[in-house]
């Protein structure tokens, strides 16, 4: 991943979470702490009333220098948010859908969370709905020649169903500058699966349903791939 593209995703996460930052804010799976440092900077420069904590399961992944622009960062070795009594906002990014769902289920339950899974975001959306989370906002950011899907969720009832839920209900309702490119990518992916799966198989049926769904969206032609 180029730094520039990785940064676009982190900036999209920051943009989504910024209006909701207050109280205890946890960057779960903070790894090298890049996002944690950006959150620290945001809180400090905007004078927000919040404490940012980076949580990382693997101690060796945490940065040696735990400071953001010279200001100390709070980080802990933990499985998700375990060990914290209260969390207002969490960010869980760069993890698979099942890991994200497990972390949310273990709690403590935040008032809002921004989540991102590099793959199988359809599985994530389905699992979030089943676990009692509603998708409030969605956005796309360029990453690795495709689009990272970023979701903000709150406890509640998600009413969307079927492929609308799996593709991104708020993306479809509110649009996104990268929506056409994203839909084209999803279409290419499932067309490839449909072409290689034996007709009549579960995989072929699933892929064909996706292709039919995307065809029915009637989105404008996407720009050239280089715009990603
Ligand atoms: C691919 S990195 C993503 C880093 C950063 N969040 C991002 O989006 O760029 C995933 C990180 O999550 C950590 N992780 C995975 N499961 C975790 C858990 N249950 N609790 C805390 N950290 C976890 C991994 O050790 C790894 O450092």
Structure, explained:
The chain is of the alpha/beta class and about 230 residues long. It folds into 2 domains: about 5-170, Rossmann fold (3-Layer(aba) Sandwich); about 180-225, no CATH class. It is about 40% helix and about 25% strand. The chain has 8 helices and 9 strands. The chain has helices at about 5-15, 35-45, 95-105, 120-130, 160-165, 170-175, 180-195, 200-215, and strands at about 25-30, 50-55, 65-70, 70, 75, 90-95, 110-115, 135-145, 145-155. The strands form 2 sheets. Strands 5-2-1-6-7-9-8 form a 7-stranded mixed β-sheet, sandwiched between helices. It has a two-stranded antiparallel ribbon with strand order 3-4. A hairpin with a 2-residue loop joins strand 8 and strand 9 (about 145-155). Helix 3 packs parallel to helix 4 and helix 7 runs antiparallel to helix 8 (about 200-215). The longest helix is centred in the last third of the chain and has 18 residues, at about 180-195. It is elongated, with a radius of gyration of 18 Å. It starts with a helix and ends in a 13-residue tail after the last helix. The model has no long low-confidence stretch (mean pLDDT about 95). S-adenosylmethionine binds next to strand 2 and helix 3.
Based on the model shown, name its key terms.
228 residues, alpha/beta, Rossmann fold, 2 domains, seven-stranded mixed sheet, 8 helices, 40% helix, 23% strand, elongated, binds S-adenosylmethionine
């Amino acid at each position: 991943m180029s730094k520039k593209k990785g940064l676009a995703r982190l900036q999209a996460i920051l943009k989504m979470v910024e209006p909701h930052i207050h109280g205890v804010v946890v960057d779960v799976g903070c790894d090298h702490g890049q996002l944690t440092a950006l959150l620290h900077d945001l809180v400090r420069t905007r004078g927000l009333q919040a404490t940012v904590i980076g949580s990382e399961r693997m101690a060796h992944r945490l940065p040696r220098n735990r400071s953001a622009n010279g200001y100390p960062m709070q980080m802990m070795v933990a499985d998700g948010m375990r060990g914290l009594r209260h969390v207002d906002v969490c960010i869980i990014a760069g993890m698979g859908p099942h890991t994200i769902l497990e972390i949310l289920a273990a709690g403590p339950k935040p008032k809002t969370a921004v989540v991102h899974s590099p793959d199988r975001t359809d599985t994530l959306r389905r699992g979030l709905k089943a676990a009692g989370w509603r998708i409030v906002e969605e956005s796309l950011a360029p990453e690795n020649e495709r689009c990272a899907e970023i979701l903000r969720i709150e406890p509640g009832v998600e009413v969307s169903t079927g492929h609308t839920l799996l593709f991104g209900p708020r993306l479809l309702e509110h649009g996104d500058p990268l929506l056409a490119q994203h839909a084209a990518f999803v279409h290419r992916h499932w067309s490839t699966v449909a072409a290689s799966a034996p007709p009549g198989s579960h995989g072929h049926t699933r892929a064909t349903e996706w292709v039919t769904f995307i065809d029915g969206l009637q989105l404008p032609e996407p720009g050239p791939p280089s715009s990603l």
